[in-house]
Amino acid sequence: xxxxxGLVELSFAEGGEGAWSCFGISxxxxxxxxxxxxxxxxxLREAYGPFAPKLTFDRxxxxxxxxxxxxxxxxxxxxxxxxxxxPQSGAxxxxxxxxDPYGYGEPDPDEPARSARGDVLSISLSPSWWSAxxxxxxxxxxxxxxxxxxxxxxx
Length: 155
Known about the structure:
The chain has about 160 residues and is of the alpha+beta class.
């Protein structure tokens, strides 16, 4: 099951006895391009203020490396989208490598806010990555609140 909160998507798998566990969190950064503030859950807007309509990989990587984290290009990424990982957290970052992979060359009238090379499309996290990463580190990774946060409202 997937719960879509606009900017944030949570994925769940049904376990035994009707219990559901969160196995993934995805931040759909590309949804900010529309400029629709409602794409960002209200608790995030209240805590962090307005969100910019796009996030570049350069800006994100500078912020992460300033915090002592490293970023690695993953093997086997496509020509139109590059996938990076942050080994200390298990995060995967998906970045536009070719904004016109099919060679159309003209903007789509249904998508006026086009992506550009270097724009972050999404960031994915998985609790299984956190536990695997934490086991290999001197200091375990603390994932923060669970996927079932009562602060997120369904759209």
